Amino acid sequence: MKYSITSLVKQALQGHKGWPEAFRHPAPKKHYDVVIIGGGGHGLATAYYLAKNHGITNVAVVEKGWIGSGNVGRNTTIVRSNYLLNSEIPLLEWSLKLWEGLSEDLNYNVMFSQRGVLDIFHTDGQRDEAVRRGNAMIVNGVDAEMLDRQQVLEMMPMVDENNGRFPVLGGLLQPRAGNARHDAVVWGYARGADQMGVDIIQNCEVTGISRGPNGEATGVETSRGRIGAGKVAVAVAGHTSQVMDMAGIKLPVESHKLQAFVSEAVKPCINTVATFGVGHLYVSQSDKGGLVFGGMVDGYNSFAQRGNLPIVEDVAEAMMMFLPTLGRVRLLRHWAGVVDMTMDGSPLICKTPIEGLYLSGGWNYTGFKAIPGAAWCFAHTVANDAPHDFNAPFHLDRFAQGRPVDATGGGPFPNHH
Amino acid sequence: MRISCPLCGERPLDEFIYRGDATVTRPDKEAPMEQWVEYVYLRDNPKGIHREHWRHAQGCGSWLIVERNTVTHEITQVSETRPTQDAQT
Ligand SMILES: Cc1cc2nc3c(=O)[nH]c(=O)nc-3n(C[C@H](O)[C@H](O)[C@H](O)COP(=O)(O)OP(=O)(O)OC[C@H]3O[C@@H](n4cnc5c(N)ncnc54)[C@H](O)[C@@H]3O)c2cc1C
Ligand SMILES: [Zn+2]
């Protein structure tokens, strides 16, 4: 069913009892052309683009829990393309362009709100860095604006502008960036893929990758039996190491956890996504009024989908420096996701040394914004057995070849990114 | 999470800094490229018991080897990387 004003009115008159399910719940077939492991944003969107752009519809997405139970439902929903390196910008900017038409493309409102992302700086060094980044964006055709102190204070009147140590000097704004509704992204892609014939199979954990006589991937072993596949595509975020280990591939990846926080609802007070240049802190306000914010990864290997108190303290301290007027606002919820941190802070979207096995992972804490663009490229890679120009820099072999994509210059330490 | 430093006793996590996987060892200077790539970049990333380096930075400064479960965060063993004379006696 196509969602429209007519279908809405019709359903409203019938007490909203006639809406069909958004997607089917089929049992796994014996064989598919492509099996995608992981029903997160990347897995579902890859299925959607495989069907839509490449006509490959005999596809299954296999998810161990329920779709959206991983990081795609746990993130702080920031969508931006304010990147630095020429190797990164085209992919992320393509993604942002897809975001701009996504609700229409999916016939599903993903509530993409281009409220802007404003990186506020407080030292001369940070200003130089912001100018450099802004120029890199503009050279690549991405929107970027330098705001002076006064303009920042007009946009973010609550910022503590003169706290002595960290006066506001200005900010780098990407006006086209913003937030989207993460669950809607999952459901929208799932519904879109399903309508083109993709099977979405939930509660089905992949436990092994089966291999043919020449070592090629031929399917997956799952908690619901073996499923044969012409090609296997992996998109499992925090568990990338574990799933790739099933095929004997060791990765430049460590799993860390990242926490997110939501306050009680307050009146509209922040109408952009603001970051505090001094600490690692970012904040926006959800449509329901809650302040959504977060900080750094915990910084040591962890698969626990729950937080630890030192980061809570850290984030609370940074909030008090940045927006002290919010000091009395109560924290409503707080949780963590497991993120696959790579050694250069950039993703892996590539073929693997195993024939028929493809990988999209290493998303660090930046993979939500990338879902449309990266999945579009990943589908291209799986369909054509070759990367698109946009994802060519994100091959696994870049580490051995000495060309990591290391925007922060953090070196081979996943907790530095 | 709290870590029991063998020299200082049990201390809160924020006194320590994480220094990475303790199972990787530096290859020989003449070792082939693949071994160096593995050493610098590749990690086992186990879901379960992990041997790792922590430094008691806001305490005695020692480097420790901590054996920790990455799912439950239970710490089963803490030892010094190089035990001091005192700690051995
Ligand atoms: C707190 C937090 C805040 C974040 N904020 C942002 C942000 O503001 N902007 C941004 O761009 N990014 C952000 N991110 C990162 C972003 O959420 C992730 O990079 C992205 O969602 C990862 O891709 P995914 O959606 O496909 O992963 P997931 O949703 O994690 O999907 C992977 C799926 O694979 C499944 N799976 C795992 N193993 C198996 C198996 N063996 N068999 C079958 N299925 C399996 C999992 O159950 C899971 O559903 C944030 C992350 C966190 C944790
Ligand atoms: Zn100590």
From TrEMBL, chain A:
Provide the alphabetized UniProt keywords: Cytoplasm, FAD, Flavoprotein, FMN, Nucleotide-binding, Oxidoreductase, Plasmid
Protein localization? Cytoplasm
**UniProt xrefs under InterPro entries:** FAD-dep_OxRdtase, FAD/NAD-bd_sf, Rhodanese-like_dom, SoxB
Instruction: Give the GO cellular component terms, alphabetically.
Output: cytoplasm
Look up the signal peptide feature and give its range: none
**What does the entry give for GO biological process?**
tetrahydrofolate metabolic process
Q: What is its EC number?
A: 1.5.3.24
Q: Which domain of life is it from?
A: Bacteria
A Pfam family per the record:
DAO
Q: Which residues form the Rhodanese domain?
A: 34-78
Cofactor or coenzyme needed: FAD; FMN
Q: What is this protein called?
A: Sarcosine oxidase subunit beta
Q: Which organism was this protein described from?
A: Parasedimentitalea marina
**Which is an annotated GO molecular function term of this record?**
nucleotide binding
Automatic annotation (TrEMBL), chain B:
Q: What domain of life does the UniProt record list for this protein's source?
A: Bacteria
Signal peptide stretch: none
Q: Which Pfam families match?
A: SoxD
Record bears the keyword ATP-binding:
no
Gene Ontology BP terms: tetrahydrofolate metabolic process
Q: Which GO terms describe its molecular function?
A: sarcosine oxidase activity
Keywords on record:
Plasmid
Name this polypeptide is given? Sarcosine oxidase subunit delta
